Amino acid sequence: MSAKDGMNYAPEGKKLEPVCKKGDFRVGVIGLDHGHINGMCSGLVEAGAEVTMVYDPDAQKAEAFAARFPGTKIAARREDVLEDKSIQMIASAAVTADRCAVGLDAMSHGKHYFSDKAPFTTLDQLSSARAKVTETGLIWAVCYSERVQNEAAVHAGRLIMDGVIGRVLQVIGMGPHRLNAPSRPEWFFRKERYGGILTDIGSHQIEQFLYYSGASDARVLHAKVANYAHPDYPELEDFGDATLVADNGATNYFRVDWFTPDGLRTWGDGRTFILGTEGYIEMRKYIDVARSPEGNHVFLVTGDREEMISVTGKVGFPYHGELILDCLNGTQNAMPQEHTFKAAELCISAQNAAMRIV
Amino acid sequence: MSAKDGMNYAPEGKKLEPVCKKGDFRVGVIGLDHGHINGMCSGLVEAGAEVTMVYDPDAQKAEAFAARFPGTKIAARREDVLEDKSIQMIASAAVTADRCAVGLDAMSHGKHYFSDKAPFTTLDQLSSARAKVTETGLIWAVCYSERVQNEAAVHAGRLIMDGVIGRVLQVIGMGPHRLNAPSRPEWFFRKERYGGILTDIGSHQIEQFLYYSGASDARVLHAKVANYAHPDYPELEDFGDATLVADNGATNYFRVDWFTPDGLRTWGDGRTFILGTEGYIEMRKYIDVARSPEGNHVFLVTGDREEMISVTGKVGFPYHGELILDCLNGTQNAMPQEHTFKAAELCISAQNAAMRIV
After folding, report:
1. Nearest of A215, A260, A270 to residue A238 by alpha carbon
2. For residue A76, what pLDDT is reported?
3. How far does A300 lie from chain B, in Å, by closest CA?
4. Is residue A349's pLDDT more than 70?
5. Cβ contacts (< 8 Å) between A305 and chain B: which residues?
6. A79 CB-near residues (< 8 Å, 6+ apart)
7. How far apart are the first and last CA of chain B?
8. Least CB-CB distance to B278: which of A253, A261, A302?
9. Model confidence pLDDT, tens digit, residues A147-158
């Protein structure tokens, strides 16, 4: 569970007060293919949820998960989780291409759904999810953790809402990741299964763009992907980028890649640069390179100052608590449903539009 | 001449030994429309050149320049500089659209030419310059100062040549600039005169891309420009970006803008991120934001380490000395002629291809 290993990265922030009492909100888990499930569930549990049941075809994985979340019953069959009437939400980090099917089943059983990102690998999956939400009125949430589980990202959002940098004109995101290929499961290298680099780790970037710019829609202007240096994994894309323009005129550029060098003390030197009319923000999300291995730094420049704001342990992740309350109260405070789907739509659109460089 | 004022920024680095004796290399100056001429000429003088004559239609500008470079004679007519047989090179920071004409005249009089960037505003100008160089065999040099007059940029080039980050896959450049509109001349806001933001400050970015990636040619894949916030200057583009792919497969993204906030202690928080197969480099060229107002920082991450390398006063600018020697010896060590022209060509191509956002 080293911070050098992105596959099992489970971010921790300031502990916030639970939003509900024990027993108010019960979560069942189906699909443990990606380690993100740990961060997703620990966030929910901290906010007051209970994880009561887990199913994965791999018994070892289910046991490891149950050990991490004491009190979780290991289900013998997928249906046991779906059919448990006491469970209000299904959470899943199944293989990317299978996440939609879990959500459709969850909603058919009257449960909210909390998916690892990326939630979909095709626009057809997304359409079926949109229809299911319309039909059921349930919440299809997606854990875009690079924003909702990073304290710098949360704090930057508040600064922008406060108007500190004026109107947001552009967001540049860099999402480098450490590959560590031997640690990855086989599905991770099959494009039909993981969806392509822009769909996969690009989804964080587009979600951040929509959020920080306050846009409700955007258009992909250009995208590209490459496999520069991993001929042993021909379906891996080790590099991708895209540029978009939003309905409010703000633009976005992001790059994602699998080239984090082993000398970096964390899994990726993620950055976000937000240019506004009255100032700009840089986030060094996971490390302050060559200085501190601690992350969560916001660099703010405005009309009157330069300021470094380090917020590790100071902000927390309000997302999970808001999500629980949204499910309990029928609100959309954690993340509007259409925003969740739009980010997914645009990353698949970028993937589909991408030119292949090498 | 504050560092907060980009128009008169004249970078200083470690003093290097002159490459020639007094009298070996004489420079005449025609056109003082941009303050860059000071940095261009101080670089040449430090390297051993003499600036012997200056002409500008604005007598005040000529006098200020002559005071800054003692021993420089103020010419009454442009022709006096061109016809002075002792002068080997004409340097110019005329209005961007006029720089080509000065160079053609210089070469018609048998002199090498040293142009401020951007050297051209149209592809026709570039064609005429290429033809003139072919005809005369003289050197048409361009001062891409954001690389050749920044010690971090020079040092990064050496690290890359040494293979420290492996094969270069991508260069991301951010070139924000402070506008300070009242300090700018009228031509600066006329697009036909300054050429557009991608041609103007974008030229630095494309030159760096070609240099660090070792590419000899590239293709513009997408570009955009905008005037987001300066309705009083309708022909100003306050934002531009572009992405390119080189003939060797490396790609480039850059953003340039005029939104440096007043709170920043220098004219722009210029950054360059160079992603290689074995590591990456970040340059903080003019400031280490919210930490030090000193620039010239190289952040290097490789297979075994993170390292901050601050090189202010340690590297110098070998470019000007190499340029003098190229003129004296018929070599092309400072910058190959075709590289100089290719960078100019691509920034005009990006400008011509750019979609207008707002």
Report:
1. A260
2. 97
3. 8
4. yes
5. 263
6. none
7. 33
8. A261
9. 999 999 999 999
Q: What tens digit of pLDDT does each residue of A6-19 get?
A: 666 778 899 999 99
Closest CA to A302 of A192, A159, A148: A159
Tell me the three state secondary structure of residue A309: strand
Across the range B134-142, mean pLDDT stands at 98
Nearest CB partner across the interface for A228, out of B229, B277, B304: B277
Q: pTM (2 decimals)?
A: 0.97
Evaluate if residue A170 carries a pLDDT over 50.
yes
pLDDT in tens, B77-103: 999 999 999 999 999 999 999 999 999
Tokens at residue A82, please?
Answer: 């779906």
CB A226: neighbour CB atoms within 10 A? Answer: 23
Out of B253, B259, B305, whose CB is closest to A253? B253
Residue of A nearest to B275 (CA): A259
Question: Do the beta carbons of residue A204 and residue A147 sit within 8 Å?
Answer: yes
Of all residues in chain A, the one with the smallest CA distance to B222 is A222
> B288: which DSSP letter?
B
* Fold designation for A6-143: Rossmann fold (3.40.50)
The pLDDT of B197-220, averaged and rounded, is 97
Return contacts of A345-349, CB within 8 angstroms, 24+ apart: A345/A123, A345/A126, A346/A206, A346/A210, A346/A218, A346/A220, A346/A244, A347/A118, A347/A198, A347/A199, A347/A202, A347/A203, A347/A205, A347/A206, A348/A118, A348/A120, A348/A121, A348/A122, A348/A123, A348/A126, A348/A195, A348/A199, A349/A123, A349/A220
ipTM of the complex: 0.96
Instruction: Report the C-alpha gap between A214 and A247 in whole angstroms.
Output: 10
Q: Do B263 and A304 touch (CB under 8 A)?
A: yes
Domain boundaries, chain B: 6-143, 147-317+348-356
Task: Answer whether B301 sits within 8 Å of A239, measured CB to CB.
Answer: no
What CA–CA distance (Å, rounded) separates B236 from B226? 9
Chain position carrying tokens 């003098």:
B324
Q: In the prediction, which pLDDT does B15 show?
A: 92
* Per-residue pLDDT at B230 exceeds 70: yes
Architecture of domain A147-317+348-356: 2-Layer Sandwich (3.30)
Q: Does pLDDT of A60 surpass 80?
A: yes
Q: How confident is the model at residue B1 (pLDDT cuts 50, 70, 90)?
A: very low
Q: Which of B169, B238, B308 to mutate to test the interface with A (most CBs of A within 10 A)?
A: B169
Element (H, E) at B55: strand B50-55
Cis peptide before A118 (omega within 30 of 0): yes
Provide the H-helix boundaries in chain B. 36-46, 59-68, 78-82, 99-108, 123-136, 145-148, 151-161, 191-194, 197-200, 202-213, 318-329, 337-353
